[in-house]
Amino acid sequence: xxxxxxxxxxxxxxxxxxxxxxxxxxxxxxxxxxxxxxxxxxxxxxxxxxxxxxxxxxxxxxxxxxxxxxxxxxxxxxxxxxxxxxxxxxxxxxxxxxxxxxxxxxxxxxxxxxxxxxxxxxxxxxxxxxxxxxxxxxxxxxxxxxxxxxxxxxxxxxxxxxxxxxxxxxxxxxxxxxxxxxxxxxxxxxxxxxxxxxxxxxxxxxxxxxxxxxxxxxxxxxxxxxxxxxxxxxxxxxxxxxxxxxxxxxxxxxxxxxxxxxxxxxxxxxxxxxxxxxxxxxxxxxxxxxxxxxxxxxxxxxxxxxxxxxxxxxxxxxxxxxxxxxxxxxxxxxxxxxxxxxxxxxxxxxxxxxxxxxxxxxxxxxxxxxxxxxxxxxxxxxxxxxxxxxxxxxxxxxxxxxxxxxxxxxxxxxxxxxxxxxxxxxxxxxxxxxxxxxxxxxxxxxxxxxxxxxxxxxxxxxxxxxxxxxxxxxxxxxxxxxxxxxxxxxxxxxxxxxxxxxxxxxxxxxxxxxxxxxxxxxxxxxxxxxxxxxxxxxxxxxxxxxxxxxxxxxxxxxxxxxxxxxxxxxxxxxxxxxxxxxxxxxxxxxxxxxxxxxxxxxxxxxxxxxxxxxxxxxxxxxxxxxxxxxxxxxxxxxxxxxxxxxxxxxxxxxxxxxxxxxxxxxxxxxxxxxxxxxxxxxxxxxxxxxxxxxxxxxxxxxxxxxxxxxxxxxxxxxxxxxxxxxxxxxxxxxxxxxxxxxxxxxxxxxxxxxxxxxxxxxxxxxxxxxxxxxxxxxxxxxxxxxxxxxxxxxxxxxxxxxxxxxxxxxxxxxxxxxxxxxxxxxxxxxxxxxxxxxxxxxxxxxxxxxxxxxxxxxxxxxxxxxxxxxxxxxxxxxxxxxxxxxxxxxxxxxxxxxxxxxxxxxxxxxxxxxxxxxxxxxxxxxxxxxxxxxxxxxxxxxxxxxxxxxxxxxxxxxxxxxxxxxxxxxxxxxxxxxxxxxxxxxxxxxxxxxxxxxxxxxxxxxxxxxxxxxxxxxxxxxxxxxxxxxxxxxxxxxxxxxxxxxxxxxxxxxxxxxxxxxxxxxxxxxxxxxxxxxxxxxxxxxxxxxxxxxxxxxxxxxxxxxxxxxxxxxxxxxxxxxxxxxxxxxxxxxxxxxxxxxxxxxxxxxxxxxxxxxxxxxxxxxxxxxxxxxxxxxxxxxxxxxxxxxxxxxxxxxxxxxxxxxxxxxxxxxxxxxxxxxxxxxxxxxxxxxxxxxxxxxxxxxxxxxxxxxx
Length: 1255
Fold this sequence. Notes:
- α13 packs antiparallel against α15, α35 runs antiparallel to α38 and α46 packs across α47.
- The chain is mainly α.
- It has 49 helices and 25 strands.
- A hairpin with a 4-residue loop joins β22 and β23.
- The strands form eleven sheets. Strands 4-8-7 form a three-stranded antiparallel beta sheet.
- The protein starts with a helix and ends in a 5-residue tail after the last helix.
């Protein structure tokens, strides 16, 4: 039993009534110091130990019966054991320090803190220094019936003494056998033989300040045992040992007396982090936000009083209540919080002192002496006043009150402006930031007044949190049945709102009166953050958006919880008066972007930071909000789902009066299987589905962050600030619940280049290609088109066959076949609905924005790859969405712009892959008639554009070319069309550059060539040569494959080999391609795919000699790292830290009223790494990080050159006029990136990170 448990148990047994009867007190030294600390000084001091007192008074607790006497005797024996164990632990603290050959130093009884003064620690006589607790143990035992546990403890003590004696004898024996001039051969002794032990001792003495105490002891003991020739040196070393032992004893005494806050703080920091701490913080902040201060205060005290729960608390939790009392000017309450901090073994941090000083600033009668004492205490804790202003997040007038308090004792104090400490930039961008003479940052084609007006519109949208838009299906004529269904749905929703409102209020009353003495977190504060009607609106909206096939309970709950959190965050910012400050800074920020203002030589991020520092008064814009843990979001969502399922009902005869009238639920909670796992599912009733489909409603409601922004995004200036005006956004996309990425980013010293590149991508303005949008909507509202990637309506879905499985006329095989058909039909209907709704959302948003200019804020994934934040409609989407997006700013084509448009069109067709740029241009000129016909008659002409690989983008390009050639001067034609430049198997390009592989570099266009190289065709040609050779040698499968090896068959495998595809995965890819060839014999698919994947891998190994070696090195490194218990980390050349979040999966059960949800968590850092995922993912993730680094470098330099630039990973977009400039920048930055010693720096980083403990 551990000391902590013994002390806690002893505390429980000690009754307060016994202590109150005692008048005599003694010092704390007479009791177990650990016990005293556990009681936080609240237990009264008594003349005897609590255990003895309990034993003496135990007879008064029970009636004098035989049974109770027996119970008293048993308890007395247990108390004897506890007392014996405590005394044993108090008196027997021996520290064994192992140092190769076993050495040990024995400390005296802790609590003394002084040196024993005894001689060398090797003699057997030292065993008498260890107190024998045998007599002490049996002293208080029952004489009539000795306890066998006491005997066991005594025997353990004797055995321990014998082991120590034998150990000391062995050490002495080995010391005598050792040569006098050689060391013990310990691991840390790396000096050559014959080196004097005195030198080692001197070295140990010099490094004593930096070495751990145990390491100093090891060095001293090792030196002591290496030589017996020099008596003087030996005496010096023994003195050193005794000095070190004395220091060790002092430190042990400090630990046991709990008088070292540093050690407690370190231990607490390790245990307080995690979801529980975050849940407590979010709970307290929710209570404070709704004004339920008593609930928050009592909850914190309930957590503080119980030791097992107190471990989840850290200083920031206590600071939440301190800020509340600071607002009220309750300095005495803040003083109590400081006492609680001290009792918990925690140190006040900046937030604690900030709350105290703010409170002093609000109290007019506060004495300057109190303020001075607070500032002096801050200095004693190594905290400066400037840190308060640079690191704390302020709300409302907190900063002004803090400054007011400081001015009482320091009237001339002004916070330092050095908010952004200067860190060295990565070498790749040092010149970019240092030499800006030739930079020409672009302006937007808007006046400052227009941008400020656009900001107001965006602010209104985000404050509303939702946007309701017209559906593109509204163009259909309204039938009588549609009108009837819409009216019915409107009536039902009005009833559902009333029912949900009543149910929500009743459930809140129940939760509000729930007994909180069980210390459990309660959902009540989270249900009070918004108005009741807002929760109801969120639930009604989720019902309207639910697919007919239903939704996973976990996904539905997560979405509901996230919507509540988003609204709560916006309300927080409004309450904290951040909106007004944001508006003021943004209006000044538009001066940088507007075309009618002066030209600046700073980047958007730098300009915003300067403006924010100038507008320092008032609330902080960055930080201050606690994000909810995933479990809290999920629990809140499941609670709302449960309300919906239990309370939303409809009449069964609403569509058919022939049915009996009764209320039936509109949502059903059921279970279904996903793979081999059973999951909860929420499915709408068929009546509701039928009503929604027949109504074909004309309105769609989206969350505000789903829509593109109406003004330029707020620039990313830190990890926690940027993108939207009010809506929360993450800089790095992560799995729900993963926090390791954010922690790494916050520790990173300089992310300027990464943030600036994201800002550049987000500052590109867009508009809708309205003629093309109208054509797409017309096909969408007709019957769709599978060929053109326009999903058909559900009316075109296959009918689900109905049959009675109990019908005896069907045979077993017929029933199985019909069941299979039903499953296939349902799956097809579900897929068609998903695709149809996805297209509906995209087209409806595009239609809503058809007359607007808009922007896409960007963020990134954990590898650094960038993405637009709006999920549905953006330029990373399908061919349809890319085709209807054009740049808002137009630029004249210039001399070569029209040629680039024609080349781009040929690229979109997928033809002429092996032709030179001139050859593609000539081909485009030969098909000008088809191009113009496609532009003029897209749906009724020759329809040439429909055969392109990307048909809608090809049609848009045809229209742009037609408009240009028909203009008076094509060179002056203003084009808004984005021209793409795509990478040639980008992953292989990076591998070839890393390995300096000339042959591989040539095949992926890294070397000058007359015509563009196509690596896929090259691999196919090489595979065909291998096949022909094998066929000639009589291999049957090689003969069967004659004429079937093409670029398409090998392309996917070649492309994914770079990203770590295995032979198994490659075989499946080739098998799929072979099955698509109707002429290929299906009975040979298996053998052919096995054969071809081997040839593809062999061909790639010959073409890219360094690629496989680099991949193998990365894979093996990741395997070794993960096997040692670490996750793989690295830093990109731009300084972005990356960590792979792959850990062993653990299950966690979320208990809710509707269902227990089992979460499969594979990102928990407490779990061991998943070795297979770590090693397989490292090569592709590393290449992705290099790819994103190259894109970011290109974005920065294009911005400084005045270009419009966006990217879809390795595909770069710009105006036709600036394609040549962008190509030049792209090549220059690729060379600059791979001129760095990337692999060497990676190796150095891995060695430093994971191998620092090796000699």
